[in-house]
Structure formats: C-alpha cells, structure tokens
Amino acid sequence: MAELPELETIRRALEKESVGKRLKAPEVLSTKAVKHNGQKKVFQGRLEGAKVKSFDRKGRHLVGNLDNGELLVLDLGSAGYLEKAAPKSTAPKGTAVVFAFTQGGQIRFVDPAGDAQAMVVAAGQLAEEVPATAAGGLDPVADAVSWTAFARLVLARSTKLKALLMDPEVVAGIGPIYSDEILYEAGLRHDRVASELSSQEIRRLFRALVETLHEAVKHRGTSLDDAPFVDLYGKPGAYQDELKVHGREGEPCRRCRAPVVKARFANKPVYLCEACQV
User: Fold this and answer.
1) Nearest to 33 by CA among 97, 92, 84
2) 77, 103, 134 - which closes a domain
3) Are residues 121 and 190 in the same domain?
4) How far is Cα of residue 54 from the mean position of the Cα atoms in its chain?
5) In the chain, how many domains are there?
6) SS3 for 1?
7) Is the Cβ–Cβ distance between 50 and 24 less than 8 Å?
8) Are residues 61 and 11 in the same domain?
9) pLDDT tens track, the chain, 278 positions
10) Rg of the Cα trace of the chain?
11) Measured by CB atoms within 10 angstroms of the end CB, which terminus of the chain is less buried, N or C?
12) Co-location of 170 and 127 in the same domain
C-alpha cells in the first residue's frame, strides 16, 4: 500500500499532467471500482466536461478539484496505481477506469487487487462521504508543522511509537516502511510508550519524521519486491537504496555495524537496530 511519499509523487505528476485540461466521459471497465456513485453512468456524467483545477492529497486519498464543484477522489487500495498512456497502447490487466482529456492523452487507473476506488463527491461533502479523508493527522510534506503541535500529540497518547506514527489521526499516510525508518533515525524503539518520551526524544522523533518524509519524496518513493511502486510514468521510486533498517534483516547497521533485527509488533514485522534504538 502506497505511503505518503509515494502518494505525493503521484500527486505532483497528476498536477503536471491534468491541471487545466477538460475531461471526457471516463471509460469504466470495472463497475466495482466506481460503486460509490452507484451506476457507472452517474460517475461518468459528473465528470464529463469538467476541467481539473488542482490535485490535492488527503491522507491516503488523491483528490482532484474540478471547476464544476465536484471532487474526483482516488483511493489506490492495496496495489492500485495510475499511469499516463497513449490512447492506442494496450491497457494492463486490472485497468478499472480510463480518464481521457479533450486535448488528448489519458490516465489509466489500474486496480490489480480489486480494492481500489474512484468516486465523485460534491466539494462540501468530502468528509461526510469519505470519512477517511477527514482524519486530522499532521502532514509534514504539505504543511509547515510545528514541533510544539507534534509534541502535544505525542504526550497525549499512551500508545507505542510504531502505532503512533501509523495512526492517521497523528500523521497522515505513514505505514510500515517509513515508521521503521523514522524510528531508526530518531534512535527510538518501536515499543516505547509515546507519553513517556523526554523532550529531547520528542525533538529527535519530530526531526526524523520531517527529514525522512522529505528525503523519501525527493527520491520519488520506495519500490520493494513485496511493495512495488511506480510513478505515473512507470518509473520506480529510488528511496529503497536509502533504507537504513526496513527489509535489511541481518545486514549491518549503517551507524554501529550491529545486525539489523526483524521483530514482531501487533503481529506484523518491524525492523530495527537493537544497539542504536533505545
């Protein structure tokens, strides 16, 4: 599942390729992917003729702002992706919706796992119709986030740090990859209790959060064998070459040379250096 850096990479490409262009009626190849709007004709009718004004990111959702007062909301699900394509090229298996523009060109919404969603909602009803977009988590890439605001969130919770970072009410769009990397950079274990951190430890965590996410966006996200990612142009991310612990079980820590360990947390794998992270 794409995390914040991957989604931001896609958002920036969508801005470049769609803003200022007018949509044709999209071709719907999977009615399941547009079930939020009921019949596919409803989905098509609410998009046809609309011009894209901008593309935002709300948590794990991509949101296109249209000039007709509607929003095009895309949830990539567990394995969905978008690709820019020439009209006559062969569509990949799992293509759910094809968005075409009156000026030419198209963007395909591909859903290999069958759990992605494309929907149209009125601008004022986004939070009501798609509650996940209303999660109030901080977004260090889109907004300037203060250390004090972050510290208040941390100290108010008695949860473990790994769960804290993956809570959409705390930080938007963080999953297993970047939570591991942020905790490594901060020198903190995944099972530390948030509310028990010292002021210095919270500052380290905040700095690691901001720096890791910005660096991952700069490298256009992470593409791993078990979590492949390609951008709108079919190119994989490059941040996997920068990973310090995630997926590096048994390899030497890049700080102290102790072996990276794979542990379990909430019945899922977590990677850390037990010598560096305390």
Assistant:
1) 97
2) 134
3) no
4) 18
5) 2
6) coil
7) no
8) yes
9) 899 999 999 999 999 999 999 999 999 999 999 999 999 999 999 999 999 999 999 989 999 999 999 999 999 999 999 999 987 889 899 999 999 999 888 999 999 999 999 999 999 999 999 999 988 789 999 888 899 999 999 999 999 999 999 999 999 999 999 999 999 999 999 999 999 999 999 999 999 999 999 999 999 999 998 888 999 999 999 999 999 999 999 999 999 999 999 999 999 999 999 999 99
10) 20
11) C
12) no
> Token pair of 2, please?
């794409």
DSSP 235: P
Going by C-alpha positions, the residue among 169, 161, 244 that lies closest to residue 201 is: 161
| Residue ranges in 76-222 assigned as alpha helix (H) | 126-129, 147-155, 161-165, 176-186, 199-218
Q: In 3D, which of 49, 48, 65, 60 has the Cα closest to residue 14?
A: 65
Structural domain ending residue among the three candidates 80, 112, 134? 134
Segment (H or E) for 45 = helix 40-47
Contact assessment for residue 118 and residue 126, using Cβ atoms and an 8 Å cutoff: no
Q: For residue 4, give the nearest of 152, 125, 181, 253 by alpha carbon.
A: 181
Residues 91 and 201 in one domain: no
Residue 116's contacts (CB-CB under 8 Å, 6 or more residues apart) are 33, 74, 75, 76, 77, 79, 80, 96, 109
Instruction: Kindly state whether residues 128 and 60 are assigned to the same domain.
Output: yes
